[in-house]
Amino acid sequence: MDKLNINSTPSSVKNGRGERLLVINPGSTSTKIAVYENETPLLVRNIRHTVEELSAFPRVIDQFEFRKSLVLRELEVNDIPFRFDAVIGRGGLVKPIPGGVYEVNEAMKRDTLHAMRTHACNLGGLIADELAAALPGCRAFIADPGVVDELEEVARITGSPLMPRITIWHALNQKAIARRYAAERGTRYEDLDLIVCHLGGGISVAVHRHGRAVDANNALDGEGPFSPERAGTLPAGQLIDLCFSGKFTKDELKKRISGRAGLTAHLGTTDIPAIIQFIEAGDDHARLVLDAMIYNVAKSIGAASTVLCGKVDAILLTGGIAYSDYVISRLRERISFLAPVFVYPGEDEMEALALNALGALRGELPVQVYQ
């Protein structure tokens, strides 16, 4: 790393311009990085990984050095000095924790290395910690990981004490969008009652009451509406029969719930614009399946409104699918009677991570301790 021009003086002291941040967001087939000077992005890159590259690693955690070296190389080729006040990574699937900013510590690293669920996001905090450790005074953070759990106790109970509800959802983007909506209206996230729906490869619906997500579905492995690649809630009896049919291994069935489920199981693709082209060409089956997904999303949002006794300030729709007029227009038809609907297409997890790190450095957001 010597050739990256490591400087032992934090940039806020060195140049007097404010905080300098490195943001790292590992995904299944990419590693996104960004460099911020205060709120201004100086560099944003999406490093794509081929199937062949990743197949060299037996486990996701084995990709650590590979992805870290690509981050460092991207900084070098773009002449970005290796000099930061904080490095923040996308949080991993550790144990359930309240939302907020967490400094990476030994307990978090231990739990990440032994996480029960495998996902590339588990690498975010680990890479952030190692890079920050190379710089005196530099801090390593994560913020609002997918395991954020702020559920009310009544929301945890199911019909079987063997299976309490858990939540794995798009906490980072949902909370960032909720704060953005509040700021646009001159109020605070903590003063609003919102339903936020993230429409992506997985679909999460959460009830945000006064700054806490008091109910949210397990969008990763089996609850809520089906999505482009996830099955959502399934008939329990039929699922048990399938498990004992002898037709599938445990791993194969897991993929039938998350990965090879939802739209891709029905239609062979997760590409919403392509599916809409099929529909416009007269494919009635494609229309039925996509409309069924929209129908299920609307039902989940309607159910979420009961948590707030119908007193919903706004419904916020976000994620990549929110770019689709076909989906949004049909969803509006079913839910607009509940509350005003606002659409925030896409997701800006990089900005959300940067703003969380800035808030922590400036003392505007409390830094929580992972235990």
TrEMBL record:
Gene Ontology biological process: acetate metabolic process
Keyword Transferase: yes
Entry protein name: Probable butyrate kinase
A single GO molecular function term of this UniProt record: acetate kinase activity
Family note: Belongs to the acetokinase family.
Pfam families per UniProt: Acetate_kinase
E.C. no: 2.7.2.7
Ranges annotated as spanning the membrane: none
Gene that encodes it: buk
Gene Ontology CC annotation, any one: cytoplasm
Annotated localization: Cytoplasm
Reaction(s) the record says it catalyses: butanoate + ATP = butanoyl phosphate + ADP
Keywords assigned: ATP-binding, Cytoplasm, Kinase, Nucleotide-binding, Transferase
InterPro entries reported for this sequence: Aliphatic_acid_kin_short-chain, Aliphatic_acid_kinase_CS, ATPase_NBD, Butyrate_kin
SUPFAM superfamilies assigned: Actin-like ATPase domain
Chief place where the protein resides: cytoplasm
